[in-house]
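=== Structure Prediction Worksheet ===
Name of assembly: unnamed complex
Input type: mixed (protein and possibly other molecules)
Chain count: two
Listed entries:
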Amino acid sequence: MISNEKVITADKLTKKFGPFVAVDQISFEVNKGEIFGFLGANGAGKTTAMRMLCGLSLPTSGTATVAGFDVYKENELIKRNIGYMSQKFSLYEDLTIRENIRFYAGIYGLSDQRIKEKTNLLLKQLSLEGKEKTLVRELPLGWKQKLAFSIAIVHDPAIVFLDEPTGGVDPITRREFWSLIYEASEKGITIFVTTHYMDEAEYCNRVSIMVDGRIDALDSPANLMKNFSADSMDGVFLQLARKAVRNE
Amino acid sequence: MRALKFLLQKELRQIFRDPSIFFILFIMPMIQLIILPLAADYEIKNINLGVVDHDHSEYSQKLINKIVSSGYFRLRDYSATFPQGLHAIELDKTDLILEIPAQFERILVKENEATLFVAANSINGVKAGLGSAYIQGIIQDFNQDVRMQWIQLPRLSPQPTIEVTSSNWYNENMNYKVFMVPGILVMLVTMIGSSFASNNIVREKEIGTIEQINVSPLKKTQFILGKLIPFWMLALSVLTVGLLIARIIYGIVPLGHYLTIYVFAAIYLLAILGLGLLMSTYAQTQQQSMLVSFFVTMIFNLLSGLYTPIESMPQWAQIITKLNPVSYFIEVMRMVVLKGSGLVDIKYHILALLGFAVFFNTWAILNYKKRSG
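=== Predicted Assembly ===
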C-alpha cells in the first residue's frame, strides 16, 4: 500500500519558545500509506512537532507541507485532510457515543446519510452496538481511546496524527488498538504516531527517534536494530535517549 | 453554515444535560426576584429613637407620642441625661436622640418659641439624614397643631406660607418594588449570560476538547456563533421567567410592549454574551474567567443606576456608565415598564448596544486563535 508519493515533508522545521528550542531543524518525509512512528523521551519535542504539522502551532522557521499544503499559509486546508487524536482525551464526556460521532462527522461536513452509515459501521467495528446511547464518560479508558481514534478518521482523512494514543491502556486493548490502526492503513490512510512503547515501534514501517528536539535516527525498525547492533527497539532507544542533556 | 447546526445541537444537548440548568432557569430568578426587592427597599423604617426629656410635661409627652406613632421610629431608650442618651447610641441601641429641654412647654407657651435638639448617629449617612428629616417633619407638624390650639389666628396670617403639593408621575404610589424589580431582572439576566458565556470556552480549553475543534476545518465565526446562540436563547428564557414572576407576584405589567423589551434584550444580550466570550478567549482556567466576570459584573451593576441614581454620581463615573451596557438596559426597562416607552423612544439606546455587540464580538472572534504563536 505504500507509494512513493510524499504526504508529509519537513525541512529544517524549527519551533522556539523564547530562548528554548523545542524542535531543532527537523527534516523528514512520510510516504503515502506509511505507518510512521515518532519516538522520543518525554519533552523531546514530539508533540510540538506534531502540533506544527497539524496547523495548531506556528513554526518559527523551516518549511513543511502536509497533504500537499503549506503549514504556514494553508493550515486551514490541511485541517480538511487530516485527523488528529491528542494526548488529552478529547471527546465530549457528557455526550453519548452516537452524539459524539454525529458532532465530529457533522463539523467535517459529512451528509446526514453518510453520518448514519458511518455511525453504524463504526459501532459495529468497535462492537459497541446497542451502547450508542451510553455517555462517553461511562466507558472504560481503552474503549474511549478506540472510539476517539475511530472518530478521528470518521471523515476519511489522508493522514491521521496520533499523539500517544495508547498511554495508560492495557496490553490487550493496545493490541486491539493497533489492529484498528492497521485497518485504517490498509484503507490508504497515512498514520503518524508518537509512542513510548517500543513493541509498538516495531509495528511501524519506519520510525524516527527524537532527542533534545532533533531527529537522531530515522529508518525502519529492522535497519535501526542492525545499525545500533541491538536486539530490540528498546536497545536502540536507550542508546539514543541516554545522550539527552535536556531534562523534562 | 451546516456545521453551525451541529455545533448548536451539541451545545444545547450539553446545556440541558447539566442538572443545574433547572436551578438556573427557574430557582435563581425566583429567589432573586422574590427576596431582593423586599430587602432592597430604600424607605427607612424602624429608626431607633432615644429620648432625653428634661421637661416631663404634657407637651413633651404629646410630641414623643406623635413621633412614635408615625411608624418610622421605635422608642428604644429613655434617658435622664444627654450623656446617658449618647451612651445608648454608642451601644448601638439607638440611632437618633431627641433632647427636650427643661421648661419646654412653658417657654413655648410664653414666648411662642422653643428649641429642641436632635442628634443622629451618621455612620449610616442615609439613615441619619432621612431620620433627621422625618423627625423634623413631625416636629413641624406638631408645631402647626400647637399654633392651631393656642394662638389666636389673626385674620391675615402674618407669615404667609407656601405649601407645595406634589403629584408623582409614572409610579404614583412611589412603590419601590415597581422601580427595583425590572432592574434586578436586568442584573439577573446579565449575570447568567456573562458567567455562562465566559466559562464555556474556558471549560473546553480545560478539558482539551478545544484542541479537537481547532484542528478541524470549523471557522472561528462558526465556533463563536455556536457558543453565542445557545446562551442567548437561555438568557431570553430567564428573562421570560423573570417577567412572569414580576407579573404574577408583583403585578407589574409593563405600560409599554413586551415586544419592545424583547427587541432590546435580544440586542443587549448579544453585547453581554460577546463580552463574556471575549473574556473566555483570554482566560486559561475557569477560575480566572469566573473571577474576571464576577469583577466586571459587579462594577457594571454598581455603576448601572440600579441602586443609586446615575445623575448623582460624579462626572467621571457618569462617563463610565455610558460605557456600561447594563445601565442602558436598566434605563430602558424602567422606561418601558413605567413610562410605556416604545422603540422610537429608545432608538439611541438600541444604537449604543448594537455598537457594543459588534465591538465585543468582533474582538472575541479576532482574539480566538485556532493556531498558537
